[in-house]
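User: Just a sanity check before I run the rest of the batch. Below are the structure tokens for the first item. I only need the designed sequence back.
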């Protein structure tokens, strides 16, 4: 658009300069030509400013595009990392479930062992009672035997 404006301004300036040379009003035309030249300089200055601003905006756009590409790369890396972590979590869940099963088996085994221990303790108490009874009977028999020996000696 700036180029169109510049072209129109130049054509206007050219037309005015032809008109100025064809008329006899030299001083007025000379002043008008000077005004047009000043306006042309102003337009060129504005065009240069716009060009510089456009270049700055293009640099900013390129920087933003670079940042976007970096962010896209980071998103892809994070997505891959997330997928890897999900796989690892699933693997850990399987391991956890296996360990839970082992723990349940160990608890069952422990309960069975405790039950067997309690039965063995009860049985050992029963045997101890029997041993105590037999020991008492043995002691009684030993006493009886000793008494019988003493009587036998007395009888002899």
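Assistant: Here's the designed sequence for the first item:
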């Amino acid at each position: 658009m700036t180029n169109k404006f510049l072209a129109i301004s130049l054509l206007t300036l050219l037309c005015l300069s032809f008109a100025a040379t064809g008329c006899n009003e030299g001083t007025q035309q000379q002043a008008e030509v000077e005004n047009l030249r000043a306006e042309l300089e102003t337009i060129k200055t504005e065009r240069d400013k716009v060009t510089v601003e456009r270049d700055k905006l293009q640099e900013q756009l390129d920087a933003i595009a670079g940042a976007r590409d970096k962010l896209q790369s980071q998103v892809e890396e994070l997505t891959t990392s997330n997928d890897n972590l999900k796989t690892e979590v699933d693997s850990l869940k399987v391991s956890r479930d296996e360990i839970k099963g082992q723990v349940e088996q160990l608890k069952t085994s422990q309960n069975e062992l405790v039950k067997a221990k309690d039965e063995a303790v009860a049985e050992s108490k029963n045997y101890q009672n029997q041993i105590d009874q037999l020991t008492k009977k043995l002691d009684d028999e030993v006493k009886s035997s000793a008494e019988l020996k003493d009587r036998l000696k007395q009888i002899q």
